[in-house]
Amino acid sequence: MGNSTQQNNDKSFRFYTRLHLRVLTGLRASDITGFLRLLKTVSGSSIYYHTHHFLQQHQYLSPEPPNDFAHWITNALNEEVLGEKIASIDTVQYPSIRALRDKIILTMEDYVEKNPRARLRFASPDRAFHFIESVSFILPTPYLARTLSDFVEILKKVTPNSIYFHMFEARLRLDMETNDFSFWLGTSLFEKELAKEITSLDPYTFTMEALRKKLVGLAEERIKSVKDR
Amino acid sequence: MLRIDRYEPVVGKAAIDELKMLAGYLKGRAIQHINSTAMGGGVAEILSKITPLMQELGINAQWDIIKGTPDFFNVTKAIHNALHGKEVVITKEMWKVFNDVSRQNIREMNLYGEIMFIHDPQPIALIDRKSNAKNSKWIWRCHVDVSNPDEKAWQFLKQFIDRYDAAVFSSPHFAHRMKPRQVLISPSIDPFSDKNRELSQKEIDNVLNKYKIDPGKKPIVCQISRYDALKDPVGVIEAYKLVKRYVDCQLLLVGNRAADDPEADKIYAQVKEAAAGDPDINALMVEDIPAEINAFQRVSTVLVQKSIREGFALTVSEALWKAKPVVASAVGGIPLQIKHRYSGLLCHSVEGAAFAIKQLLNAPEYAETLGRNGREHIRQNFLLTRHLKEYMLLFLSLYDKDNVVTLA
Questions:
Q1: pLDDT of residue A2
Q2: Residue B205's pLDDT is what?
Q3: How many domains are there within chain B?
Q4: pLDDT below 70 — which residues of chain B?
Q5: Which residues contact B84 (CB under 8 A, 6 or more apart)?
Q6: Closest CB to B183 among A21, A59, A127
Q7: Which residue stretches of B259-363 are H helix?
Q8: Residue A180 scores a pLDDT above 50
Q9: Which residues on B lie below 8 Å from A59 (Cβ)?
Q10: FRET partner for B226 with CA separation of 20 to 30 A, picked from A50, B151, B252, B259?
Q11: B45 is in which domain, residue-wise?
Q12: Residues A48-90: pLDDT tens digits?
């Protein structure tokens, strides 16, 4: 789905939202070897789910819990060093799920090569890692922004799911280092500076509400500076 | 005022709008829920709430019940226990009873849903009617813990499950290799039910007086669960005794006697024996009165769920919804509800439980933070509105096998 879906012919911006349904794959791992094998073969949707769902499910927490992989490696396998390495992978740097998957695999393989005893760790049966996928439903909201002021007012009331869709998924969907908001602000409203400021945020380090506040703050500042001229 | 709008102050307007938007894609579609009982048990409770909400949103949702004989329900109870992994003998005659009653339902029931939503094993054989209604979609919703089922019982059910379009489970631990798409949908709590609604101080005081509980005396550590070895009430007493060496507190155990559980009296006797001589242990055998359970949870300082095995354990969601710090075993659906050290503390042993309880009693600010996070986690993920949303997404997923579905 390209940017054209949000950006209408009249240069207005349609807010969309994305909802998830979790699908069980029946695939599970109890040690690093089995985990790595599955990590290489599960769908991109599963990698996406385990590295992103906490953003929506724990959107009120700061600092946020690490991604599922890091959490399991730390807490079920007791490999804290590897868990920390996986948790600190800078997700925002990876423009695609494929690239993110490769980085996680590389980090794990490198660690296991240097620490072969890690292969001997087993999670108890009730703490096995279950691979889950996500089916996504993308739907338009009634909200349409034509100006920067519209944009701010809508931003204040849409669900975190909508902000999530336009900020996080856009990068992966567009395969570009930007997001829907910046793309529209830059190309339709010619708000290049504001677009750049939003692009340079690392959304993974905010709670969803804090991210909303930050976006609203940046846009309001811009509106004020235009008025003050 | 629509019933659904009552939830707006709890989950926000945007979340309710999202439900209404989603329902727009299912307008007029006939959904037929079928289970085995209209009253009693979690399945009937959730259907009694979700069905009217779906109707109000414009979905043609209906709920019907299969017919069964006492013998049939004895067999399905045995199947239920076998799915839980208990050693149960199901004889040829018992399977015959199941098949005979199923066939009668298959012949006589009026099945009209475009989407047939079949709950639990009792009506599972209705899938035989699928061939008569080729355009209908069939979902099997499993509310039972099938993480470690008796293989014979599971294989018997699997011949039916494999013919459904989708199967729904409550925890990732319950997933199996099977033909239909397996969807994970957790159960939920209703913030307006008697078990979860806000209580007046008078209502709380009435419960305290009735059971002679004094929360002002010492902090209360509490587990609310039926007296069942799998809930490990004796383990809770052992953990409390370890805590008590360092922190003065009282232990409240609240449980009921499930009608179909002959073991309850034996376990209760063990609890009484383990508690003997300590005036700060109060082990109550109570009726299952939701508002009273609510009050017990609200007066507790720390709530414990030290189960050895669990299905989903909605008691954890109930406790977190009251912003209580919770210590619970990492079994069944509990890790979905508690992210360790963020929204509660998980444990794996008596000693682990004791250590966690001590931490929470000694650090009330930390306990408060966990409770606050826990309540938000439940608000976002375990309320009835989320359940309703996921059921609607499930219906939509039946018509599109892709992992990304764009709705115009």
A1: 43
A2: 97
A3: 2
A4: 40, 258-262
A5: B144, B145, B149
A6: A21
A7: 264-275, 290-299, 314-321, 334-337, 350-362
A8: yes
A9: 380
A10: B151
A11: 3-188+383-397
A12: 899 988 776 666 665 566 689 998 999 889 999 999 999 999 8
CATH value at residue B95? 3.40.50.2000
Which two three-digit tokens encode residue B368? Answer: 């408060």
Q: What is the complex's ipTM, to 2 decimals?
A: 0.86
Claim to verify: residue A97 and residue A152 sit in the same structural domain: no
Q: H or E segment at B192?
A: none
| Contact check, Cβ <8 Å, A21/B22 | no
Q: Strand B137-141 to strand B115-119: parallel, antiparallel, or no bridges (unpaired)?
A: parallel
Which of A84, A115, A133 delimits the end of a domain? A133
Per DSSP (E only), the strands in chain A are 13-29, 129-145
* Structure confidence at residue B332 (pLDDT): 81
Phi-psi region of A171 (alpha: psi -120 to 50; beta: other; left: phi over 0): alpha
B chain contacts of residue A17, beta-carbon cutoff 8 Å: 18, 21
Nearest in space to B378 (alpha carbons), one of B330, B342, B331? B342
Residues B295 and B363 in one domain: yes
Is the pLDDT at A14 greater than 50, yes or no? Answer: yes
**Residues A31, A12 share a domain:** no
By C-alpha distance, the chain A residue nearest B11 is: A159
pLDDT at B402: 86
Q: The tokens of B244 are what?
A: 């008590």
**Residue B403 distance to chain A (closest CA, Å):** 4
Residue-level pLDDT at B263 = 77
Which helix or strand (DSSP H or E) is residue B261 part of?
A: none
How many distinct helices (H) and strands (E) make up chain B? Answer: 15, 13
Both tokens of A229, joined, read 């001229």
Q: Is B158 helix (H, G, I), strand (E, B) or coil?
A: helix
Number of Cβ within 10 Å of residue B64's Cβ equals: 15
Predicted local distance difference test score (pLDDT) of residue B38 = 84
Same domain flag for A117 and A159: no
Q: Identify the residue among A22, A28, A135 best suited for mutation to test binding to B, counting B beta carbons within 10 A and taking the highest.
A: A135
Average pLDDT along chain A: 88
Which residues have CB under 8 Å from A55's CB, separation 6+?
Answer: A64, A164, A168, A204, A208
CA distance B269 to A8: 71
Confirm or reject contact between A207 and chain B (CB < 8 A). Answer: no
Say yes or no for a CB contact (<8 Å) between A135 and B177: no
Same domain (yes/no): A129, A158: no
pLDDT of A160 higher than 80 = yes
